[in-house]
Structure of Protein BatD:
Amino acid sequence: MYIHWSLLFCLTCVGYHGLAQEIKVSARLDTATILLGDQTKLRLTVDLPARKNIMFPDLADTLSAKIQLVDIGKIDTLKDQQHPEQWRLSRSYTITSFDAGTQTVPAFAFKTADTTWKTDPLPLLVKSVAVDTTKAIYDIKQPLAVSYGIMDWLRDNLVLVLLIILSIVALLIGIYYVRKRRKKLPKKEHEQVVLPADVVALTQLKELRDKQLWQQDQVKLYYSELADIIREFLERRYQIRAMEQTSEEIFVLLKSKEITEVQRDRLVQVLRLADLVKFAKEQPLPVDNEQSMDNAIQFVEDARERNLEAEDKLPERDELA
């Protein structure tokens, strides 16, 4: 029984020792000798089983009384293809020193949940700059004044200047070409087509009927547009200033024109009812509204100049006066 317990104890110790050897930490310097104020890399490396957690040392800005920490790099993970169960984690630190002599980079501690591993301290030799004391000491030289003229600027920016000049030349050539081409193009004479007065009036009356204004309780607007269409037709057809005359004055001017009694009655019904609606707030019946439209259309059709191919333009106002 004593022999069995002894063997079990030995196996336990060997297993614990093997587990402890699974993690290895190390520290090294890229160069162990630097000049005063120069920098070097401190590299901390740990070999451990895959996916095992370990904490790198939390370093302050000063590693020791005479060694300063300049920068901290990221942790790099290296995986061994032949031994995928083992990982290597590495991190670099930039350090410097401004004290000549042999300095000591301290040991660093890596921690897991239950164990701490430490690296070995490293020597760092910091050499001072040799000064020749046999020579005199001179003041710092002042900055030299350098002349920099327009030709120097043009020489330094030659490509930019050439691009600007070429762009301006290309723009001027383009403007010249466009203007020259415009001059060569034949000018089109826009001949204004004047439609006959009856065609214009009948088109306007149809559009007014399609609006259905009086059906929407817009009786005043309906008669206002209806009267304006008839007055414009009278101006163009009979050469009178109907737009500026009252209805009664229009009837007087039309006495000398070729208008039948039936045409006159239709025109009187349209214009007088329009005046009553606009100025006396008359409310005509729907049948009166329809009759006014029918009379206007019939008046225009009766007054049509069937023997003319086109209608002359309306004279100027001063000529009609």
